[in-house]
Amino acid sequence: MEALYKLINLNYINISRFAFQLHPEGHRLFQDLDELIIQKDSFTEYIKFEYSTAIIFNIIVSIPSMMFLYINFGNLCYCDWFSTLWLFVVSLIKLIEIIPKAIIIYQTVRISNNSNDELVASRRLMYLTRSNLFFFNTILGYMLLINYSIYFLFIRKSNICENAPQFHFIINWLIFAFFLRLIISFVNYFLHFKYGVNEADIEQTNFYKSCNNRVSKDVLDMIEIVQLTKKNLAEVVTVSENNETDLCCICMLQFEIGENVKALPCNKKHVFHDKCIDKWLSHNKACPTCRTEINKKLLNRNKFY
Fold first, then answer.
1. What pLDDT does residue 23 have?
2. Regarding predicted confidence, which is higher, 87 or 77?
3. Which residue in 133, 199, 228, 230 has the most C-beta neighbors within 10 A?
4. Domains by residue range for the chain, with CATH
């Protein structure tokens, strides 16, 4: 029994580690979410409502659908095997979706509650949206979208089953609920982000309290952009004995030849992708590594380009 417990615990640890590892395509696919993540409280409330609604909807829809399929499987396959397969796949995906959505809600709330520093919280939320778990949840969403598209191409033209007349009624109700969910999602997004940060909020919150909390554009333009080449790679970034470059600590991706980078004046080894550091400094005035304030005085004193 103890050996079984250790085996389960080990597999759980390995799965959880893999789930929260950064996905190789995470930064490219989800970097647009950074604009939302910066609004930490709004982003947390949005995720809580959006995914909680999705979980409730998935439970209400998928479990009765699976039970209906189990009871009437023979009649349904004989009448319309394609629609039967479609309903089974959609219900199964919705059941699987519950797990990553519940974990994402838990992690989002946990990060929000345990991080008093707005910058640290936003950065942890950014890592969460780059993880394998978030990528998997997004793929499931795309799979559902493809299945709903298949419905409009084929299933809506199917014949009504005489032995199970409620079959296509259930499918049509499922489609109606899908559009209802889209409307709710749109309203949820609109309320949290379109009106989530207005002028009154900007004056009241510490994060947006003053323009001094971010680096001005003229200072950003003073930081020189350097393109990595084979000649300057070792001089600009740290290269290990295995010829692996250091990571940009914002996006957690390795530097590659041909990319544009910026070195901050606080330390010439504090190097970041130009787009990553521009986005960071447009909302924070400190270096992500050493938290030194970036300003004109520092640039003029420590210019090493």
1. 82
2. 87
3. 133
4. 2-204 (no CATH), 213-301 (3.30.40.10)
